[in-house]
From TrEMBL:
Catalytic reaction annotation: L-proline + NAD(+) = (S)-1-pyrroline-5-carboxylate + NADH + 2 H(+); L-proline + NADP(+) = (S)-1-pyrroline-5-carboxylate + NADPH + 2 H(+)
Keyword Electron transport on entry: no
Protein name (record): Pyrroline-5-carboxylate reductase
NCBIfam families assigned: proC
Organism: Cellulomonas triticagri
Length: 287
């Protein structure tokens, strides 16, 4: 039996998320020969090449020339310059997928040749261990087949859900940035354990296992979080005392404020990436 051919793929930007994407592609059935990765620093590109066997390509423009799938994983502020660089070299039909926070599909469609299919993705770092959560949204030229290809590319990362683009800033605020909130909670629980006399190692292991187990219980039962919380809370017991203290310290309001701040920041990053009204319209391809 021969393996299914995968589209030749260029990953532009090999930082935290670019590396997660490279790893996910290889787990999903792409071979190392199918994947090129570009980086600003040659040393980082060689590091990824050594770790995964993928080709360290340079520059972005050359990498996309032979690609059927381009994954943009640079910072939002760098997206406009990368699009300007690659636009003339993109082959017709090449699917451009971006994980950049906030940057609207319209920015890609304005910068890339007319008709270029674009899909925006908001992944998160638990993708590194197959436990991620990603929202994906199509641009105006992306078809169901394009979305299916993105789902195939992300198959090893965990949950992938299709959403409307208007919801991606909210997805960013909840699941994109969310791992940091969860790590914040784990760190705070571990620190509290140390305050109460546990060793840091034990307190950290207990906190990690508790958050992991609670997430697994919520996922496997499908029960509402309030129901699950009530099951922990014996009348007049320790848990109601603890949860009352969380409420008294405004922790719920703090989580809502965190998500709102991340949402606003995502929108601001998107606004900053939009071209000024005087900018020239889309470029032509290389001959
Ligand atoms: N980290 C996360 O949890 C998530 C990140 N994202 C998105 O993923 C994108 C990348 O984020 P993250 O991986 O955290 O950031 P990183 O800074 O770790 O990665 C970006 C990488 O791109 C490199 N780079 C910069 N300019 C270029 C260029 N012109 N061509 C090729 N590579 C370049 C950077 O090099 P150098 O450092 O030398 O500039 C860096 O290694 C962002 O747009 C972010 O919004 C989305 C969801 C979650
Ligand atoms: O912090 C950020 O901007 C990126 C996007 C979501 C998670 N990390």
């Amino acid at each position: 039996m021969t393996a299914t051919a995968r589209p030749h793929t260029a990953v532009l930007g090999g930082g935290v998320m670019g590396e997660a994407l490279v790893s996910a592609l290889l787990t999903a059935g792409w071979t190392a020969d199918d994947v090129d990765v570009t980086e600003r620093s040659a040393a980082r590109a060689m590091e990824l090449s050594g770790r995964y066997g993928v080709r360290a390509a340079d520059p972005n423009r050359k990498a996309v020339k032979g690609a059927d799938l381009v994954l943009v994983a640079v910072k939002p502020q760098v997206v406009p310059e990368v699009l300007a660089e690659i636009a003339p070299a993109l082959r017709p039909g090449t699917l451009v997928v971006s994980v950049a926070a906030g940057v609207p599909v319209a920015v890609y469609e304005a910068a890339l040749p007319e008709g270029t299919p674009v899909v925006r993705v908001m992944p998160n770092t638990p993708a590194l261990v197959g436990k991620g959560a990603s929202g994906i949204a199509p641009g105006s030229h992306a078809t169901d087949e394009h979305l299916a290809l993105v789902e195939e590319a992300l198959a090893a990362t965990g949950l992938v859900v299709r959403v409307a683009e208007k919801d991606l800033d909210a997805v960013t605020a909840i699941s994109g940035s969310g791992p940091a909130y969860a790590f914040y909670l784990i760190d705070a629980m571990a620190e509290a354990g140390v305050l109460l006399g546990l060793t840091r190692d034990l307190a950290t292991r207990l906190a990690v296992a508790t958050v992991e187990g609670s997430a697994a219980l919520a996922a496997q039962t499908g029960d509402h979080p309030v129901v699950l919380r009530e099951r922990v809370s014996s009348p007049g017991g320790t848990t109601v005392a603890g949860v009352a203290a969380l409420d008294a310290h405004g922790v719920r309001a703090g989580v809502v404020a965190a998500a709102r701040a991340a949402y606003d920041r995502s929108r601001a990053l998107g606004a900053a990436a939009r071209p000024t009204p005087t900018a020239e319209p889309g470029p032509a391809r290389d001959e």
